Hints:
Bound molecules: pyridoxal-5'-phosphate
Number of helices: 14
Helix content: 40-55%
Mean pLDDT: 96
Number of strands: 12
Low-confidence stretches: none
Number of domains: 3
Order of helices and strands: HHHHHHEHEHEHEHEEEHHEEHEEEH
Strand order of the largest sheet: 1-7-6-5-4-2-3
Distance between the termini: 58 Å
Largest sheet: 7 strands, mixed
Amino acid sequence: MTEELINNKDIYFPSYLGTNDNLIILLNRATQTLCNWFSKAEKHGPLPFDENFNCIMPEQDGNSAVDLFSEIESLLNNSFNPVHPGSLAHLDPPPLIFSILGDLIAAGLNNNLLAYELSPSVTLLEESLCKWFAEKIGFNDSAGGIAASGGTLSNLNALIAARHNAGLGSDPNSVLLISEDAHSSFIKCTRIMGLDETNLVRIETDNKGCMSIPNLRKTLDICSKENKKIFAIVATLGTTVRGAIDPIKDISEICKERNIWLHIDGSIGGIFAVTSIPIEGLNSINKANSITINPQKIIGITKTSSLLLVSNMSTLENTFSTGLPYISSKKNIINRGEIGIQGSRPAEIIKLWLGLRFLGLKGIEEILKSSIKRKDFFIKNISKNKYDIYSGPLHIVSFLPKGLMPKESDSWTKTKINELLKNNFMLSRPKFNDKYYLRVVMGNYNTNESHIEELLKLLDA
Ligand SMILES: Cc1ncc(COP(=O)(O)O)c(C=O)c1O
């Protein structure tokens, strides 16, 4: 019976009648396959990729479920495994169990966040969850937000709204100010916005990796002398290489003085703002016009999960609304395809909502605190005589043996990365201020102190 159902190739879609026995069996098989992969992580290491991995393309006839399950297994066995405790390279933590379920439900639901009539309940869910976040970070009633597929898109939504709001939509003299340690995707955002790289002005950072306020003031004066019109200043709440936080309070005061839109790129650190973990700058984020929060990067909401929150929802409506002539509208309900760049969009909000509902504020705080604790343990025990260490208040550390020249840093980090991977530790190798560094991101809940001790021993060897 089971084999018969699993091999039935005439069933393409879920049935609106009957029991969907075939789908249930397939889902059970998929769940088993996925869970086996999780359980084998220890044996296979964080990055078990075979260069001969074969991608088989669709053929004239469709393939059987048995073939497809074997291909799914091969795909999994050649994939980066975020649940492995040695997966410490990037901002890609293990997936939260309830978030995996959310992805499954969203796929089955196949609703579309473009319009209320295509996703009534999920539209309200996204609106309400954005409002919940907005309230948590201290925005008032006119605030809200929109989900987008990743931090780059959330930031882009914000920058386009900022430029539109400043009345500089097509002005080639409009500029954006970021710190020199801000994420590289701002270059992409500038290009997409039809601006040139000279319209992206970088402010120096201090020795802690935070935007220098004297340098910001100097740059603002130069911009005004050169008749450059600033449409936004971006403060980074957690830089990619060392988790530094720009001086948000000072930047917000400058933005207020000069009537400039403040955007906070909180892709890494923004989620800390819903907890009571004391981190400098967090209590000023409600002074911003917009903030990106990317729960995919640290608490394990499955990718992609990113929100842009704005202090005033009308700024998004004014910027993006065109009218959707083929879609019905309802009084007081915003079709969410009208407040951001994306049109059709999946119900990604479900996995965020389920993940947060399951964790509660206590669970979120526990995950975040544990990542800081692992970072502190690593820093406490790494040899300070041997390494220069770059870190901030968050869970990211970059480091390099003292005294290495740029070329030596390139070869040392390459060798070390490979050596560590052979011992089942995956770190990353960011380039920063002309040198390469090793970076650990301590967002993996499966990593414990004995794993970190083992890593430190390898670094000491
Ligand atoms: C600070 C910061 N901003 C933005 C991004 C871009 O986010 P995404 O990769 O989700 O588009 C990243 C990615 O790591 C980041 O570290």
